[in-house]
Amino acid sequence: MRDRKLVLSAHFDEMPVEEQIRLFAKVGFEGFFTGWQQDAPVKRWRKAADECGMLYQSVHGPFHGCAELWKEDSETADAFAGELIDCLHDCADNGIPLMISHVFIGFYTGMTPTAIGVERFGKVIREAERCGVKIAFENTEGEEFLAAILNAFGGSDAVGFCWDTGHEMCYNGGKDMTALYGKYLLGTHLNDNLGVRHFDGTITWHDDLHLLPFDGIGDWAGIARRLKQWDFTDVLTFELNRDSKPDRHENDAYKRMSIEEYVTNAYMRACRVAALIR
Questions:
Q1: In the prediction, which pLDDT does 90 show?
Q2: Residue of 167, 168, 163, 266 whose CA lies nearest to 214
Q3: In 10 A of CB 251, how many CB atoms?
Q4: What is the pLDDT of residues 219-264, one digit of tens each?
Q5: How many domains is the chain partitioned into structurally?
Q6: What is the pLDDT of residue 178?
Q7: CATH label of the domain that carries residue 26
Q8: Domain containing 189: what range?
Q9: Largest CA distance in the chain
Q10: pLDDT at 105
């Protein structure tokens, strides 16, 4: 018997989210998370979750404008901060306790953390505190930006860390991100990866594969050990992709499966991870 619930990302394009929720429940998952955009029908997804007895664990906030928040003279930074706040409000209005957020997007930009960026994120965090939703900031590219936010706001009850295991293998070069931020751990995005493809060490978005656990180079016994080390006893959330990145084929076999077969495989792998932690 498992000692914690298993959660899967509901972002497979070939099936409406409500049907994914029902499929996940039928296969054995206890919860799900979704993405978000301004017209996202979060209330409808909440209703589907309640009908299936499923945990609506989190919403992944928008991230394409994250870099704008750090620019001194950005014309779109305030609008993007407003999107993050709108996402928080959707979470609060629908009883979703956690929003996942990136702090940066982009590679080799030459940008560094700025006081105005910390201030803008601070506005979002204060709204999270006000409306009772937590924000878990994820390890992506731009580790220095994550450090700036957690150093500034890690003492807030509304702020924590979401550990993406696949990102750690590629964007963070295999660095142990839990050694840095395990004390802030609020959630997981568990997935496998193959590291950095380019032999010269150049990292790109194409390195982020989100493979099923045990299909890449991940040390899953070590991942389980680290979760136990930091006494993480919450649900285990898996963020997985069926689609390959452009001009890559690592995920092609997943796409050849029916979505029912794929979700069943994901559940089997998630159970293996849970067993390691137990």
A1: 98
A2: 266
A3: 18
A4: 999 999 999 999 999 999 999 999 999 999 999 999 999 999 999 9
A5: 1
A6: 98
A7: 3.20.20.150
A8: 6-277
A9: 54
A10: 97
Sheet of 98-101: strand order equals: 185-189, 159-164, 134-138, 98-101, 55-60, 31-34, 6-9, 236-238
Q: What is the pLDDT of residue 54?
A: 98
What CA–CA distances, in Å, run from 146 to 111, 156, 180, 226?
13, 15, 11, 20
CA distances from 174 to 122, 169, 227, 228, 244 (A): 29, 4, 16, 19, 22
The pLDDT > 70 percentage for the chain reads: 100
Find the mean pLDDT for residues 16-39. Answer: 97
Q: Judge whether 122 lies within some domain.
A: yes
Question: Global pTM?
Answer: 0.97
**Confidence tier at 215 by pLDDT (50, 70, 90):** very high
Dihedral angle sign, alpha carbons of residues 133, 166, 119, 40: negative
Give yes or no for a contact between 32 and 60, defined as CB atoms under 8 angstroms apart. no
Structure tokens at 20: 């994914």
Q: Produce one character per residue of 212-239: b if its CB has 16 or more CB atoms within 10 Å, e if not.
A: bbebbebebeebbebbeebebeebbbbb
Question: Which residues, 6 or more positions from 258, have their beta carbon under 8 angstroms from its beta carbon?
Answer: none
Give me Rg for the CA atoms of the chain. 18
In-domain check, residue 98: yes
Question: How many Å separate Cα 64 from the centre of its chain?
Answer: 14
Domain-located, residue 181: yes
- The conformational region for residue 236 under phi > 0 = left, psi -120 to 50 = alpha, else beta, is beta
Read off the tokens for 13: 């394009």
Task: Identify the burial level of 35 via C-beta atoms within 10 angstroms of its C-beta, where 0-12 means exposed, 13-18 middle and 19 or more buried.
Answer: middle
How many angstroms separate the CA atoms of 160 and 127, rounded?
15
Partnered with residue 164 across adjacent β-strands are: 189
pLDDT at 140 over 80: yes
Residue 1 included in any domain: no
